[in-house]
Amino acid sequence: MNKYYVTTPIYYPSDKLHIGHTYCTVAADTLARYHRLRGEEVMFLTGTDEHGQKIEDKAKEAGVTPKEFVDHIVEGPRGVLDLWKLMNVSNDRFIRTTDGYHVESVQKIFKQMYENGDIYKGTYKGKYCKPCESFWTESQLADGKCPDCGREVQDAEEEAYFFRLSKYADRVRKLLEDTDFLQPRSRVNEMVKNFIEPGLEDLCVSRTSFSWGIPVDFDPGHVVYVWVDALSNYITALGYLNNTYHDYDKWWPADAHIVGKEIVRFHSIIWPAMLMSLNLPLPKHVFGHGWLLLDGGKMSKSKGNVADPYILAEQFGVDALRFFLMRTFPFGSDGNFSNELLIQTINTDLANDLGNLVSRTTAMVGKYFKDTLPEEHQYRAEMDDDLKTLVSELRKQYENAMDAFAPHTALAEIFKVIQRANKYIDENAPWKLSKNPDDAPRLACVLYNLLETARVCGILLTPFMPESMEKLLTQIGAGDGARTWESAAHWGELPENVTVQRGDILFPRIDMDAALQALEDAKQAALREASGIEVEPQLEEKVDFDTFCKSDFRVVKVKSCEAVKKSAKLLKFILDDGTGVDRQILSGIHAWYEPEDLIGKTLIAIVNLPPRKMMGLESNGMLISAIHTEKGEEALHLLMVDDAIPAGAKLC
Ligand code: MSP
Hints:
Rossmann fold, 25 strands
């Protein structure tokens, strides 16, 4: 049986994952599912890359240990594991670089490279990009900044271990230029021009300035450079130099590492060189996909423009989101993500083209044949051959595209066929055929051809939309034998007298405006939740207008304010309310304001409440504040208005 080992990058759990990360993992998952569909045995690995200074700093900021910090993002609610489960990601293994077996293996890998002379001790002088955790030489900087992310770099100098990357320059160059190891081909040119031609320098592979990393066991104080640690995951997760797993020999070398373009350098230069040093076989392919951009720029938390895959999946459905990601953006190129594009794609491809094909066809089988087609069909060569030929050739085209890491092309081929099938409905006008009982065999044939088309498309779409395609295949009456990879290459796998099972609409049409509004509301709610802010729910009970108008709200100016003796909470205000007579109001807000800070402020008070005594003093009215809770604590803000508004102005 053929085997296929595919990986995603392991994610930095420094923040929540966004739609860009989801893109990369869904692509690898689709590939893994495609190979399983073909009957191959698959190992699909993903995980998290949990060491490094960035994580150490973030944990400090949050007041927790680095391990507690990453545990929360990986295992906590709506964390990495939850997201992959939600997205129906079918990984066979999940590695965390803080797992003991990985730590043990990395220490051994580092030692082996040290013992074979490929790692040596020296002094590191250069530039370091903290967010990318990358070292750069002067010549590699872009306008003095990090060539990957464009941010400022820092001077760095310390005793460190180095990996003899320079020794492997020629072999790596050959690997890139003479083989199809790195794809798409345009990435080869990028790597050679930007990194190999300027001369590969030895790589600094240990740090002493922070401690959140895997210790170099023979030189305490040094931790292993996070990329050496992270890249090793692809073999430690199989049991290389540890006893937790035992299938290194079975799976290595990997068939494909799917990675984003900014980390192609690590996967196509450093990783092969490390493997050469360890004398291990090289992975067969690295594919560097493009980025999903937002408003033409990189997605980042700091830009506040992160698209939340949870919200999108909850609103539009996991399969629709998975499909959109693979259908819309050519896999090797950058693409602009937008909610509008997502909704349009769902409506056009899924609701209109695919959804309609299935619902119209099954509805007609229901209406004209009570769900079961008769055995007798009337084939008409020239009308049917076009569709049949397209469908029969589809699997081959799909296979070529999938094998060339072009899932978007595979989907384009499928949708050409779906569109052709919809046209075939109009050409044959089944509603007209249904009028004449003599046309029943022809009508049966037309509907059968449509069901067969939906079947083959449904099978080939399964890696992209596993749950919905299972439903589709059930609705059109495909038994187990008519759902296989094998059967997708053959026309006529459904029985002539197939019975359909009409079911729910697979992909409901989405109302653009309502969906955009709902997304905005969900985003705001998520932001409030993340910030720990809660507000009281609004009252259901209505107040009639006349009653409301009886409340007399006025602008007031604070003439004096002092704390009430023996009260921890109360402040006593003397206010100008525009009447010429001072008004005294007591307010329990000392926890939030110091009295001297409020003198001269312009506030709002309700002035026609009955007088009330507190701590022996009379209060004539109430100052208006806004309240909410933040991380469990009540927060209060006095309503302050423009000082230009005169005392006594009435609110209406
Ligand atoms: N920890 C490293 C990988 C180590 S693998 C040995 C890392 N992690 S990451 O979390 O920053 O990124 C993980 C993957 O998500 C990368 O392949 C990256 O390219 C991808 N993406 C992050 N943002 C992206 C987009 N906006 N669009 C597409 N993919 C992007 O790098």
